[in-house]
TrEMBL record, chain A:
Name assigned to this protein: Protein-export membrane protein SecF
Gene3D superfamilies, alphabetized: Multidrug efflux transporter AcrB transmembrane domain
GO cellular component: plasma membrane
Self-association state and partner proteins as the record states: Forms a complex with SecD. Part of the essential Sec protein translocation apparatus which comprises SecA, SecYEG and auxiliary proteins SecDF. Other proteins may also be involved.
Keyword check for Membrane: yes
Family, similarity comment: Belongs to the SecD/SecF family. SecF subfamily.
GO biological processes: intracellular protein transmembrane transport; protein targeting; protein transport by the Sec complex
Gene giving rise to this polypeptide: secF
UniProt-recorded Gene Ontology molecular function terms: protein-transporting ATPase activity
Organism: Candidatus Jorgensenbacteria bacterium GWC1_48_12
Annotated function: Part of the Sec protein translocase complex. Interacts with the SecYEG preprotein conducting channel. SecDF uses the proton motive force (PMF) to complete protein translocation after the ATP-dependent function of SecA.
Alphabetized UniProt keyword annotations: Cell membrane, Membrane, Protein transport, Translocation, Transmembrane, Transmembrane helix, Transport
Membrane disposition: Multi-pass membrane protein
Bilayer-crossing regions: 12-31, 124-143, 155-177, 189-208, 237-257, 263-291
Keyword Transmembrane assigned: yes
Automatic annotation (TrEMBL), chain B:
Protein name (Swiss-Prot/TrEMBL): Protein translocase subunit SecD
Cellular location(s): Cell membrane
Superkingdom to which the source organism belongs: Bacteria
Alphabetical keyword list: Cell membrane, Membrane, Protein transport, Translocation, Transmembrane, Transmembrane helix, Transport
Domain Protein translocase subunit SecDF P1: 72-128
One Pfam short name: SecD_SecF_C
Membrane-topology annotation of the record: Multi-pass membrane protein
Name of the coding gene: secD
Residue intervals of the Protein export membrane protein SecD/SecF C-terminal domain: 243-412
Gene Ontology MF annotations: protein-transporting ATPase activity
HAMAP family: SecD_B (MF_01463_B)
GO cellular component, one term: plasma membrane
Stretch forming the signal peptide: none
């Protein structure tokens, strides 16, 4: 029943397709970077008097000559995107908005200079690369005692491919959301990716650990690797799913009841967690079989 | 069974510590009883402003940079303290070769005013008149500026009751002042504030005599509040290097409070679902995991509070994620134990075997999460650091609760079948 290895071409093909699609989405659509990565101003405020997006845009056009992007937030407040705005301009904007719509309540005002943004972006990329590499090296190190019939660096390499898969698909999803719904990639998104990477490898380790144990158990005997992997998956699948499930409960609670400001952060982690559980069974294990040494069944 | 007695004692001790920790972490109760330390809420939960300035050190010799940066921090801190903000934080950081000054102001209502006061040096300068061409006077700087001001004091003119600013110069300034007044007797001497005077009559008092001792007064141009503000700023000191605001974030107090309330609620719901799941799926074993989970939550929150970790929205999220991962080790152990029971081991040895065999995968998977959080901590700015730290502490604590606490519970409450 659990012939994952037998059907590996289907699973690997599906995952490969999704990964490729994500890569294409990221390359073609790109991300919509948030102000913390590029510099700029995000301003969330609400007005005592009823007003609409167009009115706000019109006031800005009349007073400043440019039309900012204005969005309505879930609680009826407005989020205005501006270029980097110094305190003087900020006060100036408050002045003319106040005249038009009454004294605004400022929920959130952040203005970030372009140098800070550039620096954060560079650091974020470094962080992602470093996490991916160090986890892969750790997995290779942890599995150093089982170099037969699969070399331990291959466990690390497969962990890396699986992690790219688990982080890549949510990233593709966000490129899509950025294009159609204007969702921006900010530092939180990078954090979400790293959390996914740190967590999704858990399930992979659980399966690999069982394969490692079974391999050591059968050392010196003739083994059929495909059966051994299938058996390892079968006996660990319940715990793989359950460990992810407890995290999914928390994430779902945060999505439904948590603060709206971290909605997409949580959603990204949720998608990554589900994909990570899938990939530990249907990507990492089949890959282990595909990359087995010569002369192994 | 001396061994068992010791286990029971250890368990009672753990539970007692957890109860104390839980009470300590639960603010309303603990505060009512003792008034001891409150939770430190980050700006995004308490509301407030986060300002980052870039320090321009171009005009400063490399050897002096450290002391200038330190002096700047002190001056800004003194200015910030004037707002009466609760626990303001002012610190410098060096990043990519640039020196930055970070100011955190909790619960301030008028950030615009705060920014104006932090960044503004009241640039005071005495200028003398060199010639008059028609109606226009030609001014020349005397070199006497606010830099030489040692202290300032608010006073009132005895007759007009107008607010006055008394200035006291340091020794160097006193020397210059004496010289300048000496060569301008009978002439007007103009006091420029931020490069401007309002009019000759108002801002250019006539020098009556040479003034030694380094004391001067500026009269008749301020309201009481203005005079007080200038005095305060002079006393706080002039900025030793120019600064520029490059990053500003202000969060409304209600906004932060809503975020905190809804995260706590979501966390409670999520935890309740986890508890239900563990009880339904793992029955008796699940009950032990639930006790361990509750102890984990109490202990971890207490650790956060003792350190103390400033609780940000990201930190709360990180902690909640760690709650979602905390029972993972239990699940791995229980599944393994069930397997061993199926193999025919008795309950007690199955449990021991379950812990022993599940340990490598628990260790390896927790280490990967620790790696992620360490990298996050060192590669990011303060907002994310809170998340990384909370996640790291959470993972370490959860290993303790899932292994030590659960194992002790199981050992105490599993009676070997005779």
């Amino acid at each position: 029943m659990w012939n994952v290895i037998g059907k590996r071409k289907i699973f690997l093909g599906t995952s490969g397709t999704f990964m490729l699609a994500s890569l294409v989405l990221i390359l073609v659509l790109g991300f919509r970077p948030g102000i913390d990565l590029t510099g700029g101003t995000s301003w969330q405020l609400s007005f005592p008097e009823e007003t609409g997006l167009e009115e706000i845009k019109n006031v800005f056009q009349k007073e400043t000559g440019f039309i900012p992007s204005v969005k309505k937030a879930g609680d009826g407040s407005f989020i205005i995107r501006l270029p980097e705005t110094g305190e003087e301009l900020h006060q100036n904007y408050i002045g003319f908005l106040e005249k038009e719509f009454g004294t605004p309540v400022e929920l959130n005002f952040s203005s970030i200079g372009p140098t800070v943004g550039r620096e954060l972006r560079a650091r974020a990329i470094w962080a992602v690369v470093l996490v991916l590499l160090s986890i892969s090296f750790y997995v290779a190190f942890a599995f150093r005692k089982v170099s037969e019939p699969v070399k331990s660096w291959k466990y690390g390499g497969i962990a890396l491919i699986t992690l790219l898969h688990d982080a890549g698909i949510p990233a593709g999803l966000l490129a899509l959301l950025g294009h159609f719904k204007g969702i921006e990639i900010d530092t939180n998104f990078i954090v979400a990716l790293l959390v996914i990477v740190g967590f999704s490898v858990h399930d992979t380790i659980v399966v690999f650990d069982r394969i490692r144990e079974n391999l050591i158990l059968h050392r010196g005997k003739r083994i059929v690797l495909a059966d051994l992997i299938n058996e390892s998956i079968r006996s660990t699948i319940a715990r793989s799913i359950n460990t992810s499930l407890t995290l999914v409960f928390i994430l779902l609670a945060l999505i439904f009841f948590g603060p709206p400001s971290i909605f997409y952060f949580v959603l990204t982690i949720l998608v990554g967690t589900v994909i990570g559980t899938y990939s530990s069974i249907f990507v990492a294990s089949p890959l282990l079989y595909v990359l087995r040494g010569k002369g192994v069944d | 069974m001396r061994n068992r007695k010791r286990l029971v004692f250890f368990l009672v001790f753990l539970i007692a510590v957890s109860i104390v920790a839980g009470l300590f972490a639960y603010e309303p109760l603990f505060k009512k009883w003792t008034g001891f330390r409150s939770w430190q809420l980050g700006l995004d939960l308490a509301g407030g402003s986060f300002l980052i300035y870039e320090i321009d050190l171009n005009g400063v010799a490399p050897v002096d940079r450290d002391s200038v940066v330190k002096g700047l921090r002190d001056v800004v801190e003194r200015r910030v303290n004037l707002f009466g903000v609760r626990e303001p934080k002012v610190y410098t950081e060096e990043s990519a070769g640039a020196n930055r000054l970070v100011v955190e102001l909790a619960g301030i209502s008028d950030v615009g005013e705060a920014i104006a006061q932090i960044g503004e040096t009241p640039f005071l300068e005495f200028r003398e008149i060199v010639s008059v061409e028609g109606d226009m006077a030609v001014f020349s700087p005397t070199g006497l500026t606010g830099r030489y001001v040692k202290g300032a004091q608010l006073g009132f003119d005895q007759i007009t009751r107008e607010a006055q600013v008394y200035l006291e110069f340091n020794d160097e300034g006193a020397g210059i002042f004496e010289e300048v007044t000496g060569r301008n007797i009978g002439q007007p001497l103009c006091i420029f504030l931020d490069g401007e005077i309002r009019s000759m009559e108002e801002d250019c008092p006539t020098v009556q005599a040479q003034i030694s001792g380094g004391k001067a007064q500026i009269t008749g141009r301020f309201s009481v509040d203005e005079a007080r503000a200038i005095v305060e700023r002079f006393n706080a000191g002039a900025l030793p290097a120019p600064i520029k605001l490059i990053n500003q974030q202000t969060i409304g107090a209600d906004f932060g409070k809503d975020a905190l309330t809804s995260s706590v609620f979501a966390g409670a719901v999520g935890t309740a679902v986890i508890i239900l799941f563990m009880l339904i799926y793992y029955r008796r074993f699940g009950l032990f995991a639930v006790v361990a989970l509750l102890m984990y939550i109490a202990l971890t929150l207490a650790v956060f509070k003792i350190i103390p970790i400033t609780l940000t929205l990201a930190g709360v999220a990180g902690f909640l994620l760690s709650v979602g991962m905390a029972v993972d080790a239990n699940i791995l152990v229980f599944e393994r134990t069930k397997e061993e029971i199926k193999k025919g081991l008795n309950r007690l040895s199955a449990i021991e075997e379950g812990f022993r065999r599940a340990w490598p995968s628990i260790r390896d998977s927790n280490i990967t999460t620790m790696i992620s959080s360490i990298v996050l901590y060192y590669f990011t700015s303060s907002f994310v650091q809170g998340f990384a730290l909370a996640l790291f502490i959470g993972v370490v604590m959860s290993m303790f609760s899932a292994i030590t606490v659960t194992r002790t519970l199981l050992r105490v409450f599993t009676v070997p079948k005779t």
